[in-house]
Amino acid sequence: MLEWYTIQILPNLVKTATFNLERQGFKSFFPEALSEDNKTIPLFKGYGFVEIDVNRHQWRSVIGTRGVVRYVPKLTDINTIPTSIKKDFVQELLAQGPVPMYKVIDLLNELSPGTLVRINPDYRQDLLSNRIGKIERILGKNVEVLLGSLLNNQVKVIVPKNKLSRIDSG
Q1: For the chain, where do the domains classified as CATH 3.30.70.940 start and end?
Q2: Are 34 and 40 in contact (CB under 8 A)?
Q3: pTM to 2 decimals?
Q4: How far apart are CA 52 and CA 5, in angstroms?
Q5: For position 76, what pLDDT does the model report?
Q6: Which end of the chain has the smaller Cβ count within 10 Å, N or C?
């Protein structure tokens, strides 16, 4: 089964590593993001991902590839991206190319529709403070949250992302 694995590369050798990995039949990915001033920047400077089927590929040849330093965190413990991040994170970045940093942060924090969140107590000292709800939509730097029964009605509110805490459901 193909999985994305994290690799470290030598400084300024993204193109070299990509070329040599592809020559060996490996798909590599070095994500980029858009800075606040819309410049394309490396999302993880010096790091990228390579797609490998460890049962089929000669995965040790990846570290022998020019430009590649190592698997992360170490050779004997290949680090796969957690499934919850991998599905959305790598696929969205592959599909869209460079994305704004706030979207990257959402993916890493797993703020997506359906996520259970708590409105932080420091956000407005009223009925919304410390309430639990479910994310309905992502609206740029804000989120539409559907709160449970508030005065016997379901209420949708718009809350800044930095005023929410994700609630783990496990």
Answers
A1: 3-109
A2: yes
A3: 0.55
A4: 7
A5: 37
A6: C
Choose which CATH entry (2.30.30, 2.170.140, 3.40.50, 2.40.50) describes domain 116-166: 2.30.30
Tokens matching residue 97: 């190319």
Residue type, 4: W
Residues in the chain: 170
Residue 83: predicted pLDDT: 47
Omega prior to 113 cis, within 30 of 0: no
Structure tokens at 53: 């089927």
Three-state DSSP class for 167?
Answer: coil
DSSP class of residue 143 equals E
3-state secondary structure of 140: coil
Which CATH code of 3.60.21.10, 3.90.550.10, 3.30.450.20, 3.30.70.940 fits the domain covering 3-109?
A: 3.30.70.940
Q: Report how far residue 132's alpha carbon sits from residue 31's, in angstroms, rounded to the nearest whole number.
A: 33
The C-alpha atoms of residue 123 and residue 138 are separated, in whole angstroms, by 18
**Segments of the chain with pLDDT less than 70:** 73-93, 95-97, 99-110, 125-126, 148-152, 169-170
